[in-house]
Amino acid sequence: MRYSIDLTYKTPKEWADHAIKDFDSFLIDHADCERKASATALGFVAKCPDKVEIIPELIDTAIEELEHFQQVYALMEKRGLQLPKKMEKNPYIRQLMDACRSTPDERLMDRMLITSIIEMRGMERFKLIADTIEDKELSDFYRDIWTSEAKHATLFVRLAFNYWDEEAIYKRLEELNNIEGDICRKLEWRSAVH
Question: pTM of this prediction?
Answer without folding.
Answer: 0.95
